[in-house]
Write a structure and sequence with these properties.
2 domains, 12 strands, Ribosomal Protein S5, domain 2, alpha+beta, Alpha-Beta Plaits, 34% strand, 226 residues, 26% helix, 5-stranded antiparallel sheet
């Protein structure tokens, strides 16, 4: 996957964000976190970000951070478990802060940062100075925004699968053209014909099918596509 180091404002962290072929996600392995801390009026705000590709992964990560910071005053969170900007699988929590001062402001940043499959937990250790509702919103949003400026990202391809049956004589030519469609050969089974399975960007699927029809003089059989 293509990698990119996020720089500048959060909105630019993922370049173009969700594109035709894919979108940016945190370049973090399972169990690897991106952490940033700021101090505002003696309160510590620790932002921890993970790559979470499902709601269950997001919940597990949130629980892990809350357990690690069990002595903290608050472990507020926001997550989006799918493509940037989508609200299909997202959520947030103020975790005891005044309603609307932490979780939702954080979620607004997460949803519009151009990076998908992301969960951010902001842990607060209270420093003794009240920030007020406006101050809390600014602090939680600012914590996530600053962490995002340094978040490493990579592209997640929106993949399609194609399974076709070819005459044996067409297989060498088929393999030769695969790089033109950024396709990867997954499996090939030999019988009366060759059953071939490939993975490729969704946007290349129809083009490859049309090319195969021409290449095989219409003899190719599409077994499955998704």
């Amino acid at each position: 996957m293509a990698k990119n180091k996020a720089k500048g404002a959060p909105e630019s962290a993922a370049g173009a964000g969700a594109g035709a072929d894919g979108y940016q996600v945190p370049d973090l392995k399972p169990g690897q976190y991106h952490i940033n801390e700021i101090i505002i009026k003696r309160s510590r705000f620790i932002t921890t970000i993970a790559h979470t590709a499902s709601v269950d992964e997001a919940k597990t990560f949130i629980e892990t951070i809350a357990a690690q910071h069990a002595e903290a005053n608050h472990n507020c969170f926001a997550f989006n478990a799918t493509a940037p900007g989508s609200t299909a699988f997202c959520g947030c929590s103020d975790d005891g802060e005044p309603k609307g001062t932490a979780g939702q402001p954080m979620l607004n940043v997460v949803l519009h940062c151009g990076v998908g499959e992301l969960t951010a937990v902001v842990t607060r250790y209270f420093g003794g100075v009240l920030l007020g509702t406006g101050g809390l919103v600014k602090a939680y949003q600012g914590s996530v925004k600053e962490a995002l400026t340094m978040l490493p990202t990579c592209e997640r391809m929106i993949a399609a699968k194609l399974v076709v049956a070819l005459e044996h004589r067409f297989l060498p030519k088929f393999k030769y053209i695969l790089p033109n469609f950024r396709a990867t050969l997954v499996k090939e089974d030999y019988g009366a014909n060759v059953l071939v399975e490939v993975i490729l960007p969704q946007t290349e699927l129809e083009h490859l099918e049309r090319t195969l029809v021409d290449l095989t003089n219409g003899s190719v059989k599409i077994i499955a596509r998704s």
